[in-house]
Amino acid sequence: MTELHGELVSLLGRGEKKGEWLAGRLGNETSPDEESPELAQERKLKRMAAVRDAEHQGGAIHHKTHMWRREERSDWLRSLRVIGAMRDERKRDDITSMLSRSITSRVTLYCPLAAARPLVVKLTNPYGTPHTFKIHTSNPDLSVVCDVREWGELRGRGDVQGVCVLEEGMFRLDDAAVPHVYLRPRETLHIPFKYQTFTTQSVAPVRSHQVVQELPSPSLDVKSIKVSFVGQDDRPVSIVEVRVELLPHVVDQTIRFTHPQNTQLKKAIRLPPTEATDLRVCCNDPDVQCEIISKSPGEPQDVQVKMDGCSSPNIKTFNIIVFTDRWRLVPAQIWQVSVHFLQWMDISCVTGQLTCQSLVLRGTQANRRVRCHVSHPLEIWVDPCEVFALPARAVCELRVFVRCVSSGVKFLQLNVVDEQQHQLVDAWSICVNAQPPAITRTWDVCVPVGGGRGSTKKFSYTNPYTHTHTFTLLTDQPHLLHFKQDSFQVGGGQTYSIGLRFAPSQSCGQQEILIFINNQDQRNQDTFRAQVTYS
């Protein structure tokens, strides 16, 4: 009691202090033999006053304790009334929860991505009259198998545990696609289920050479699905809690695309050669459309992928699953597709000539230190090329220089990366259309085969300007042709001899080599074509 009621402890403490106080008052008195009659009379009066004070305090304490007990009893009665009201309010829910636990069974499934796993659940009609039961599942990935041929295919794979015979027309579907099953009194029936999911969250894929073991692990993605068998009175007669642990899936092929931002992606992916005739394909992303392009028998088949784009530099990753059976039970191949959406930029230039364009880089919500990285450093470079500060919500101009040494259309990529956080800030896909230059001179060159040091040649070039000018030499075949000097300076109207060294060759043949002569502005001044014959 003293440990639970703090007021009782204080009262007991006050009683002890009262006894100590009386003992002190009496102990301070002197002996009757040593005091005078006046002191003895005064002592007796003080003792009588002390006794009266003690009796008065004792009565107050008794009255206070009695009042405290009445208040405590009223508090107890009030608490009991609150507990009773709460018990009456929760009694129905508690009884329902206890009854649900008594009819609930639990089972665990281990499933990889896109692979169907069968499950057999026993249902018994507990009533003495025929009843029709509805089957509800909390997750559409777990469904009742209503087709006899599909269940036969699942049983043929040897994954079914227990005996389950499925008859044609055993289940009836209502307007909401909820299956109903009819049972006679006390009849027991095995209900076939199929679990198959196409979504992955925290499960990492593995490569085809790794072994996947179907063992429980705390790192796997776990789902809990509730299956309820409800009677005609909307009361459940049986509940099954299915615990699903998703296993890592095997990725057979990884495909990456770069695509302009906010534009629709449309690609065709060639299927590997296969003898299967009934090919089916699906995607785990509902925003991606996948279908097999029908062709004549014996011809290669393609998977057409369509999806809407998003802003740069987002990366969208999804899985494409290829099946070779009609019911899509076991995936034959799983492709992991990543689409990197970039900003788009078109540049038209002349081969061998330097072209400059400007880009706008917008800052993010925080200050960053970034650097530009390019995919083809010999044909494209950016100013600034070093690390620079990108203020928050600021606008920065990037100068892009492009010089292609071969004609045609090519795609170059520019990435802006945060050097401290190692994050992609922005990205561009640059489509370069290099036009062939105008050939101003052509000559033939013979180079002997097997020369250890190659061959050296010279040709003269006259400055077309009236003043001194500096020219730069470039070639589209740097591995076959080297210049004695990459740049030279010549006076107005004067002639300069350009030294060439052709790399040795071990085989006979012909090769066309272009020589670009650019002025101080890196514009194409002249282009020479050398027809090299190795003999």
Write the layout of secondary structure elements.
Blueprint: H1 6-27, H2 37-102, E1 104-111, E2 117-124, E3 131-137, E4 142-144, H3 148-156, E5 171-173, E6 179-183, E7 188-195, E8 206-207, E9 221-230, E10 236-246, E11 250-251, E12 253-260, E13 265-270, E14 280-283, E15 289-293, E16 302-307, E17 315-323, E18 331-350, E19 355-362, E20 368-374, E21 380-383, E22 388-390, E23 395-402, E24 408-418, E25 424-435, E26 441-447, E27 455-462, E28 469-475, E29 481-483, E30 487-490, E31 495-502, E32 509-518, E33 524-534
Parallel strand pairs: 1-10, 8-11, 12-18, 18-25, 26-33
Antiparallel strand pairs: 2-7, 3-6, 3-9, 4-7, 5-6, 9-10, 13-16, 14-17, 15-16, 17-18, 19-23, 20-22, 20-24, 21-23, 24-25, 27-31, 28-30, 28-32, 29-31, 32-33
Helix pairs in contact: 1-2
How would you explain this protein's 3D organization?
The protein has 535 residues and is α+β, with helices and mostly antiparallel strands. The protein has 5 domains: 93 residues; 144 residues, Immunoglobulin-like, CATH 2.60.40; 90 residues, Immunoglobulin-like (Sandwich), CATH 2.60.40.3170; 85 residues, Immunoglobulin-like; 94 residues, Immunoglobulin-like (Sandwich). It is 18% helix and 44% strand. Strands 12, 14, 17, 18, 20, 22, 24 and 25 form an 8-stranded mixed sheet that branches. The chain has a 6-stranded mixed sheet with strand order 1-10-9-3-6-5. Strands 26-33-32-28-30 form a 5-stranded mixed sheet, with no helix packed on it. Helix 1 packs antiparallel against helix 2. The longest helix is centred in the first third of the chain and has 66 residues. It is flat and about 140 Å long.
